[in-house]
Design goal:
The chain has five helices and no strands. It has 157 residues and is an all-alpha fold. The protein has a single domain, classed as lithium bound rotor ring of v- atpase (Four Helix Bundle (Hemerythrin (Met), subunit A)), CATH 1.20.120. The longest helix is centred in the N-terminal third of the chain and has 38 residues.
């Protein structure tokens, strides 16, 4: 395998791994808070599930970018392209916006959503406010994904 192709595959792996790690950690924060709150009132599971699931979207974004990368280099079709070292670096760097934004936004979103669980535990009617605060953090993961996709669209080799 040439070094450019190796770097491109590494980029896909980084996007999936970092965004997925952030999602797992973020979900862990909010799920822990939700489990504690449900020990007091198990009927609130339905109110908490959206907050628990929200940090998981960054892992999906990383997966999408990883798949688009593998498609771009021909791994999906079985017709691998030959990449120079510089082209491989371009593909690797193309994955960094969603990898880094996904990692950090999912972790912080998990913390915000955990605070939302605490809010709902004390004031059940505040579900909308808790969700809005969590979604605000999501915006930066979406920006990371969009930048990665824009670069993907304009890379030619």
């Amino acid at each position: 395998m040439n070094s450019g192709l190796f770097l491109a595959i590494a980029g896909a792996a980084i996007a999936v791994s970092l965004a997925g790690t952030g999602s797992a950690k973020g979900i862990g924060f909010v799920a822990t808070a939700a489990a504690g709150a449900m020990s007091e009132d198990p009927k609130k599971f339905g109110k908490f599930i959206l907050l628990v699931a929200l940090p998981g979207t960054q892992g999906i974004y990383g997966f999408v970018m990883g798949f688009l990368t593998l498609q771009k280099i021909g791994l999906v079709t079985g017709q691998l392209v030959s990449l120079t070292l510089w082209q491989g670096l371009e593909v690797l760097f193309m994955n960094l916006p969603i990898a880094i934004a996904g990692l950090f936004s999912a972790i912080h979103q998990g913390k915000v959503c955990a605070a939302g669980v605490n809010l709902i535990s004390k004031q059940e009617g505040e579900m909308g406010k808790a969700l809005v605060m969590g979604v605000l953090v999501e915006f930066y993961a979406v920006l990371g994904l969009l930048v990665s996709i824009f670069i993907w669209m304009f890379l030619t080799f």
